[in-house]
Amino acid sequence: MLLTRNTTRRRDDGRDTGAWTRAVGREPGGTVGDSGVGDVLGGGRPGLDGPEERGGPGRRRPFWQELPILVAIALVLALVIKTFLVQAFVIPSGSMMNTLRIGDRVLVDKLTPTFGAEPSRGEVVVFHDPGDWLSGEPGEQPSGNSLVRGLQDALGWIGLMPSPNDKDLIKRVIAVGGDTISCHGTGPVYVNGKPLDEPYLYPGATPCGDRNFGPLTVPANSIWVMGDHRNDSCDSRYHMDEPGGGAVPDSKVIGRAIVVAWPVTHWKTLPLPATFAQPGIGARATGAGPTGPAAPPPPGEC
Questions:
Q1: Coil, helix or strand for 19?
Q2: CA dist list (Å): 217 to 8, 42, 301
Q3: Which of 6, 69, 88, 171 has the maximal Cβ count within 10 Å?
Q4: d(CA 251, CA 169)
C-alpha cells in the first residue's frame, strides 16, 4: 500500500486542492490523481474497501456457528488418539497392588505395538481376554437409563471414558516367547535360569503365590503374565490347563501402561524393573532354576 502524503497540491491557477486523503490517488474532489491508481485498486466508495465492510470471505462467523465445527474436530482428534496413540484404562481390581490401585487411571501406549514391537519382560501391559479369563468376573454394569447408557457407549467408543463392554486385563510380563520359566515354594521366579528380584510385589505376597509352576517354555509370539499381588491375581498360573498353557498371544496385547495419570496423588511412571535387565536373562533354554512339584489348578477356581 502507498503511504499517505501530508502535502498539498497546487493547481496551475494557484489554488490549493487540499491534502490527499487516500493512498491510492483519489483527491478530495472525487477525481483521480496523476497516477490513476484509484481506478485500479479500489476506486469505489470510501469506507467500503475492507473485506469486513464488503461482507467478503474475511468476515468472521458467529461463535455459535463455529462451535459445532470445533466440537467435531475435538471428537475426531480424540478418536484418532484413542485408536492409534494413547488410551486411558481404569484399574478394576487389586491384582496389581500396590503398583496399581483400584480406580487408578493408566495411560497405555498403543502406538508401539502398531509398528510391530513385541512386549518386553517387565512391562505392565493391557490385553484382551485371551480365553474367557473374565468369565466369572461381574465387570462393570451398564446404566439402566437408556440415555445414560447411550452416552456411556458413545464416550467409551471415542475413548473419553471406559466402556462397560470392554473385556481387558492388565498384568506384568514376566517372560516372553521362548523363555523357560518356573517358580516353586516361596520363590523366587526363575526366567532362563535367572532369579528375579521383585520389590514391586504386594507386601506379604510370595513370588509364586499359592501356585507352583514349571519349568515350562513360553510358546513363540506369546507372553507369560502375572499380577504384582500374586495372592490375588488370576493370571497365567491359573490357566495352564487351557489352550496356550496360560500364555497370552502377542496379538492380544493392546499396549504398554506407561503412567498412572489419575488420581494426581497416585501419579507416577511405570518403568521396567532392573531385574529384567540382569545379564544373561535373555539367554534362553540355559536353565530353569530349582524344580519342584507343580500343583494342579483346582477346577473352576482362579
A1: strand
A2: 97, 83, 24
A3: 171
A4: 14
List Cβ neighbours of 202 (8 Å cut-off, separation of 6 or more). Answer: 97, 98, 228, 229, 230, 231, 232
Residue in this structure with the C-alpha cell 516372553, named with its chain if needed: 176
**How many alpha carbons fall within 13 Å on the CB side of residue 273?**
17
Q: Is the pLDDT of residue 255 over 90?
A: yes
Active-site residue list: 95, 171
**How many helices (H) does the chain have, and how many strands (E)?**
5, 14
Q: What is the mean pLDDT of the chain?
A: 76
Q: How far apart are CA 183 and CA 127, in angstroms?
A: 23
| Closest among 206, 261, 280 to 237, alpha carbons compared | 206
Between 2 and 193, name the one with better pLDDT.
Answer: 193
Query: Residue 45: which region, alpha, beta or left (left: phi > 0; alpha: psi -120 to 50)?
Result: beta
| Element at 168 (helix H, strand E) | strand 168-176
